[in-house]
Write a structure and sequence with these properties.
Structural class: alpha+beta
Bound molecules: ligand 87F
Strand content: 25-35%
Strand order of the largest sheet: 9-10-11-23-22
Helix content: 25-40%
Largest sheet: 5 strands, mixed, barrel
Number of strands: 23
Number of helices: 14
Distance between the termini: 50 Å
Shape: globular
């Protein structure tokens, strides 16, 4: 403080989290999303406010994904939030198991609606009557639509911000093709985009795979997904899904077309989605005891610049250097922000921005000013490095790239260490008790999966199949199923899951 009247400066760094990630994971998570200013709790259970800090991450992923699907000639649209009961319940298989989660509007003001109206839990039934109307001939195909929207699923199991909330944001893609081959190809193209969101943006390793008959979307033909893993809880988490719906919905909604030869055919359809759950997985994987840890590619603030004035030193010079540093970085496309507030101490600011997970902190003090340098401190590993202001931009960019890569590498090392290959039921039970993600040879029979669920039931929740990886390791002739002893057909990941 440059002499004169003393201002009240907040110094206390008693800002840390009260829970440790390894000791109390659930409490740590709830605390970190709030203290990191991503989430505010709301007075309706299972609903959360997404503050700018998390919305900014969602927007970065939106920009990427939206541009990629536009390259695939998929067009954005918007369908209504409300569904009539007759339409919603048209596809019986589809809605069967989900019915308890559908929320209904029954009143306007004080009077009852004549017919209750549902709020979309997903939009198959909202959109497909119009697919039927818009598709007549082969020239109307493919029809490729996407919408960015909210959906509501009135879940009863314990709500968790981002991971399981009653309202969430997502994109849902719905496409229709003349042939199964085209549909099959798109399923995998979209799955690859989901892999890139996780691995290139959120720095989280995922496994691309196919769901079992039990775990697939019941209304569809087959389901693919990207699966992530949370080592702390030993739970798998479905990161995003890309379904081939086959012709089930086409049959139900009469989505027919006439081909070149004048023959009638039914369309082949896909649907695919990723949601704000992505953000929760990111917090769980990278966060630490100091708070959030954001990968640079999704952080709204990549670099925070903090002045470190000292009693006798040239405070104005330091503030000017900070402002200039921010300006230089912004001009170079680096998301930088200066924290020049004079009512907080540098130490307070350090913990504040660490809590929010900003990837890189730049400190400028009297010594730095003298030497025309800045001090860089990495959020991911705490390492410090002085860099000259002459090639600030270049070096900051290198640092941010390194942080992005290190986060992915560290997460992959942890994930890989959590994977256990097993051959027998005993090995499976042991691995499950050790919170592993289990890769096991399986006979691919539904009865056997039911049996696995039954035999692993307990307060932690039953184990289920997560996916059969698209990239299958070699399965030697004569390999037995870990659970039934019958001949194994494929390698499948198993575990508890969110
Ligand atoms: C909850 C209530 C009613 C999931 C539900 O995955 C219906 C449903 O259909 C429901 N929860 N689902 C499955 C959603 C399938 C599919 N929809 C389009 C996707 C991707 C996007």
């Amino acid at each position: 403080m440059g002499g004169g009247k003393k201002k009240e400066v907040k110094k206390e760094t008693g800002l840390g989290l009260s829970f440790k990630k390894d000791a109390n994971f659930g409490e740590w998570y709830s605390e970190v999303v709030v203290r990191g200013e991503m989430i505010e709790y709301y007075d309706i259970s299972g609903c959360y406010i997404l503050r700018p800090w998390s919305m900014g991450i969602w927007e970065v992923m939106q920009v990427f994904f939206d541009a990629e699907i536009k390259k695939m000639k998929i067009k954005n649209c918007y369908f209504p939030l409300f569904v009539s009961s007759s339409v919603l319940e048209k596809e019986k298989d589809h809605i069967e198991g989900f019915a308890p989660e559908v929320a209904w509007v029954t009143k306007s003001g004080k009077s009852d609606l004549e017919i209750p109206i549902a709020i979309r839990p997903t939009s198959e039934t909202v959109m497909y009557p119009y697919f039927s109307k818009w598709i007549r001939g082969h020239r109307d195909l493919p029809l490729k639509l996407n919408q960015w929207c909210n959906v509501v699923r009135w879940e009863f199991s314990n709500p968790t911000p981002f991971i399981r909330s009653r309202e969430f944001l997502w994109q849902e893609g719905h496409t229709a093709f003349a042939t199964k081959e085209e549909a099959d190809e798109e399923v995998l193209q979209v799955l690859e985009l989901y892999r890139r969101i996780y691995e290139e943006f959120l720095a989280i390793p995922v496994i691309k795979g196919k769901k079992s008959e039990m775990e697939k979307f019941a209304g569809g033909l087959y389901t693919t997904s990207v699966e992530a893993f949370i080592p702390n809880t030993g739970r798998g988490v479905q990161g995003a899904t890309s379904h081939c719906l086959g012709q089930n919905f086409a049959k139900m909604f009469e989505i027919n077309f006439e081909n070149e030869k004048g023959e009638k055919g039914m369309v082949w359809q896909n649907s695919w989605a990723y949601s704000t759950r992505t953000i929760g997985v990111m917090v769980m994987v990278h966060g630490d005891d100091k708070g959030l840890v954001l990968p640079p590619k999704v952080a709204s603030v990549q670099v925070v610049v903090v002045p470190v004035p000292f009693k006798t030193a040239d405070t104005q010079g330091i503030l000017d250097a900070c402002a200039a540093t921010v300006e230089t970085l912004l001009e170079a496309g680096v998301h930088a922000e200066g924290d020049l507030r004079d009512n907080y101490s540098p130490g307070w600011k350090y913990s504040h921005w660490e809590m929010k997970g900003v990837p890189l902190r730049i400190e400028i003090g009297p010594k730095d000013l003298e030497k025309n340098q800045v001090r860089c401190v990495r959020r991911d590993n705490g390492s410090k490095q002085d860099i000259t202001r002459d090639n600030l931009v270049e070096q900051v960019k290198v640092l941010l790239d390194n942080i992005q890569q290190s986060l992915f590498d560290a997460a992959k090392v942890k994930r890989d260490a959590s994977v256990q290959v097993v051959k027998t039921w005993d090995e499976f039970k042991d691995a499950l008790a050790q919170k592993k993600m289990i890769l096991a040879p399986w006979c691919d029979e539904e009865e056997v999966e039911k049996d696995v669920k039954e035999r692993t039931r307990g307060e932690m929740g039953a184990a289920k199949s997560l996916c059969s990886p698209l990239e299958q390791p070699e399965l030697p002739e004569g390999t037995k199923c870990f659970a039934s002893g019958k001949p194994a057909k494929k390698w499948t990941y198993w575990g508890r899951s969110y």
